[in-house]
Write a structure and sequence with these properties.
The radius of gyration is 18 Å and the shape is globular. The chain starts with 13 loop residues before the first strand and ends with a strand. The strands form 2 sheets. The protein has an 8-stranded mixed sheet with strand order 3-2-1-4-7-5-8-10, with helices on both faces. A two-stranded parallel sheet has the order 6-9. The protein has one domain (about 15-260): Spore Coat Polysaccharide Biosynthesis Protein SpsA, Chain A (Alpha-Beta Complex). By secondary structure, the protein is of the alpha/beta class. The chain has helices at about 25-35, 55-65, 80-90, 110-115, 140-160, 175, 190-200, 225-240; strands at about 15-20, 40-45, 70, 95-100, 125-130, 135, 170-175, 205-210, 215, 255-260.
């Protein structure tokens, strides 16, 4: 009797999402850098109709590399809204994991393999500035104060367990974020990161943090401004005030661990 062929599981599908607005110069270098360290992944650029032609650069990259995708949005609704659009695209296209990162090189691609390795035992992996081994390079004292303050605010109002609640460098197991009702997510701006990790913890996600060195952007300008900070504080306050009012799934509270 001839031997039976060995059954192998298909390789997990990973898409890296990059939300952009006027990131033409960065995106032309970042997409190839991401694919160099994660050659099995695909990259989805979620562009809010950047007037600088970011989408044209992505189309040019995609013309020669089918791993590069473009989701072009017709209006600029905030970072949270763009991130959710990328997550929904990953769900609709049946990816197993979605990894989100900033499009300005503040999340260095060299940390992608470590973040991806965490998904062997996590539902959410955070590239963290605030665990041992993590740090921030190039920020002013004011930026440090604002970041630490918003994380403290999240811990107090939301009971967040992760040390870095505001960072966007994260990988998610798509089967878990399918459980979330995106229509109930309040934040569309920078408070989205804190709200989303809170909602993930509410459905029992296993959350892991791995250290990174966050590097301030060199090209372009930060989109953070005072009105956006005020909106973020308001959104987090209202989120903590109403307790989301959803009936939580009855599960043990997930632990947050640090991976090295």
């Amino acid at each position: 009797m001839s031997p039976q062929p060995v059954q192998t599981s298909p390789a997990p599908r990973l898409v890296v999402t990059l939300c952009t607005y006027n990131e033409r110069e960065n995106i032309s270098k970042l997409v190839p850098a991401v694919l160099q360290v994660l050659p099995f992944a695909e990259v989805l650029v979620v562009d809010d109709s950047s007037p600088d032609g970011t989408a044209d650069v992505v189309r040019q990259l995609g013309a020669t590399d089918p791993r590069v995708k473009l989701l072009l949005r017709t209006s600029k609704e905030g970072l949270g809204a763009a991130t959710l659009a990328g997550f929904q695209w990953a769900i609709d296209h049946n990816y197993d994991f979605v990894l989100n990162m900033d499009a300005d090189f503040s999340h260095p691609p060299r940390y992608l393999p470590a973040l991806w390795a965490c998904m062997d035992f996590a539902d959410v992996a955070i590239g963290s500035r605030y665990v041992p081994g993590g740090s921030i390079s190039g920020w002013s004292v004011v930026r440090h104060f604002m970041s630490q303050g918003i994380n403290w605010y999240s811990h107090v109002l939301l009971g967040a367990k992760a040390r870095d609640c505001s960072g966007a460098f994260r990988c998610y197991r798509v089967s878990k974020i399918r459980e979330l009702d995106f229509r109930k997510i309040r934040s569309r701006g920078y408070a989205f990161q804190e709200e989303f990790i809170y909602r993930c913890s509410r459905i029992g996600c296993r959350i892991v943090e791995t250290p990174i060195v966050f590097e301030d952007r060199i090209v372009g300008q930060s989109k953070i401004n005072v009105p956006e900070i005020i909106r973020s504080l308001r959104d987090l306050f209202l989120l903590g005030l109403d307790g989301i009012r959803d009936t939580p799934v009855t599960r043990d509270a997930p632990s947050v661990t640090t991976a090295h």
